[in-house]
Every structure is written in C-alpha cells, then in structure tokens.
Write a structure and sequence with these properties.
single chain, five-stranded antiparallel β-sheet, five-stranded mixed β-barrel, alpha+beta, 3 domains, 25 strands, 343 residues, OB fold (Dihydrolipoamide Acetyltransferase, E2P), Copper Amine Oxidase, Chain A, domain 1
C-alpha cells in the first residue's frame, strides 16, 4: 500500500511538473514576433528571437529589406551597413555600436545563434532612419521606412528579355521599354563595333539568371532617358538594388554620368569591396595589362583623381594607384576631380 502511495505521489508530481513547464514553454514558442516593414511582412528563413525583451533578426534579412548595403568582416566579426550617408557598425558580442563614428549603447549585443548572425532589430531600423513601434496585442513589430515614399514612386515592370549585363527589356503596362541601368557598366557582349569583352558573357548570364521573367521596380533619377532613347533606371528586386549587386559581385564597374548620381557612393564602395576581394572581373585583373602611368591618378581608397604632381597624389601608396588617360575615363569610373590641383 505504501509503495502504491509513493508511485501515485510521483505520478502526480510529474503531471504538475509537465503543467508548469507547458505554462512556460508553450507561450514562448507562440511568442515569436512578426515583423512588418512598410505594410509587408518580413520573410526570413530564421525566426526572430527575443532576448531580454529585445528582438533580434537575421543580419542580411533586415538590412536588405531596409535597402542598406551590408558587409561582414569574419576576422573581426564586425558588421558594417551603409545607407543614404549613414554608416553603422556592430560587433558580435559587444554592447556598443557606432553610427557615423558616434558610440551607441545596445541593450543586447549582436549574436551568432545556430550559425546565423542575429542583430538587434530596433537599433538597426532606427539607425537607418526608420520608425519602429510595437503592437503587444498582435505581437508585431511595425517598421515604417523613410524610403516608403520613394518605393511608392517606383515603376512596376516585368523583365521580358536580358540584352546585356547592364541592359534589359521590360514590359510596363503592356508597353515594352529598353532599360539601361544607371551608374554601372558591364563588359560588352552585343556592341556592334566591339568584340565580346573579358567577363562580358558571365555578366550577361548573371543578369539573365537573376532578372529574366522577374517582376521588378524601376527607380528613375534626374535624367530619364539617354541619347538612344533608352529608359535610365535603378532596378530593384524586392529590397535589393540590382545595379549595386552587379558591382558588388564583380560583374560591373562603376560608370557615373551626372546628373544621375543618387547612389554613386554605394556603387563606389561596392566596387572597392569587389576589387579587394578579387571577385568576378577583378579576379582576372592580373591577367590584364595594368596601367602604370597616365595623365591622371586616383586611389582605390578614395573617389578623387589628381594630376600626378598634386601633393595628394604623391601620398598615394603605389599599390593603391589607379591611372586614367582622360578625365572622362576617371569620371566614368566614379572618380571626382581633386579640388586642390583642379585637374
């Protein structure tokens, strides 16, 4: 009888324990917050997590959704993101972040969880100029990006044909338009007066794999058409600026023609990253003739070009020098004239 009583006692204790655990853990599973950006739910392959009352989300998912360019330094475990002149830096495990060099305290540090880099949602969104609010009733984080008005002004289109790495044919409300991407230049493959250039086919195939048959948004700049009547545009695929992707992945170089210069800083930074990483067409640069002289000189670490006799030119390390035969070539590559030597 005593043995039976003890067994019953353990059974009751087990039931109570299961009940208590369910009270704690079941709500936690159901409490994964939903993230809404400009009215659209953020689709990410890893659920947000809540630590000390703060929501953390996957690194690339949030930055790309907010239209920021993000870089990861595996050696220092540092995340750098740039958007509209704002640069923020976060380091895994550190509760201090930087925004344009100013230190900001974080309630919870970025973390690597199950192999994914997770960053604090509110800090990232607000640092990039968005407004963040919390709806406790629906367990939802609402983010209103300052870019929403710009997004609403974009033109919906479908890419029906890829002509070249930087040129596509789209359909807008039943009408077809040829679109030349602003600010970038991929090697030629279909130019009537030029042979197929190095890495041209790879660039064309990349654009085809990413855009052909896809719904995109076109963002115009100051000048809407070029001398050939082509529509000049930035192409957005969701939160991704495809012009920038071409440069960042090494399929294109920066090619800027004022007044269409809205994203020139982003493109220049992307090209620098691709060059330093040896991606795409930069991987074969050692196989190509490298200029060692020219009329003007710039640095891969800045966006200015100089006369070779300029005092700033003399301070450029030899390994960082890039030479140009003309001002047009320098400006096409995204460089601006030095205000000291006025080339």
């Amino acid at each position: 009888m005593k043995k039976r009583s003890i067994t019953l006692k353990y059974a009751v204790s087990a039931i109570v324990l299961i009940f208590i655990l369910s009270c704690f853990y079941l709500p936690a599973i159901a409490a994964v917050p939903k993230v809404i950006i400009n009215g659209t739910e953020l689709k990410i392959d890893t659920n947000p997590v809540v630590i000390d009352g703060r929501t953390l989300v996957p690194l690339r998912g949030i930055f790309e959704a907010l239209g920021a360019t993000v870089y990861w330094d595996g050696n220092t475990k540092t995340i750098t993101a740039q958007k509209n002149g704002a640069t923020i830096k976060l380091t895994i495990g550190q509760n201090t972040a930087l925004k344009n060099g100013a230190k900001i305290h974080l309630d919870v540090s970025p973390k690597i969880i199950s192999g994914r880099t997770m960053v604090p949602l509110r800090f990232v969104a607000e640092a990039l100029g968005a407004q963040v609010s919390w709806d406790g009733k629906t367990n939802t984080v609402n983010i209103q990006s300052q870019d929403e008005k710009t997004t609403q002004n974009r033109i919906a289109a479908r890419v029906v044909r890829v002509i070249d790495g930087d040129t596509v044919e789209v359909e807008i409300d039943g009408k077809r338009e040829t679109v030349r991407m602003i600010g970038v230049d991929t090697p030629e493959t279909v130019h009537p007066e030029k042979e197929v250039e190095y890495y041209g086919k790879e660039a064309s195939n990349f654009t085809k794999s990413k855009l052909e048959g896809k719904d995109v948004q076109l963002e115009l700049d100051v000048q809407e058409r070029d001398q050939y009547g082509r529509l000049l545009a930035y192409i957005w695929v969701g939160g991704e600026l495809f012009n920038e992707t071409l440069v960042k992945e090494g399929y294109a170089k920066v090619s800027t023609y004022p007044p269409n210069v809205k994203y020139v800083d982003r493109f220049t930074a992307a090209e620098r990253e691709a060059r330093e990483a040896g991606r795409g067409l930069w991987a074969g640069q050692n196989e190509q003739p490298v200029k060692t002289t020219g009329k003007y000189v710039g640095s891969i670490e800045s966006n200015k070009y100089h006369l070779p006799t300029c005092r700033w030119a003399e301070q450029i390390k030899p390994e960082n020098r890039i030479w140009f035969d003309s001002e047009e070539e320098a400006q096409k590559a995204g460089y601006e004239p030095c205000k000291v030597c006025n080339p």
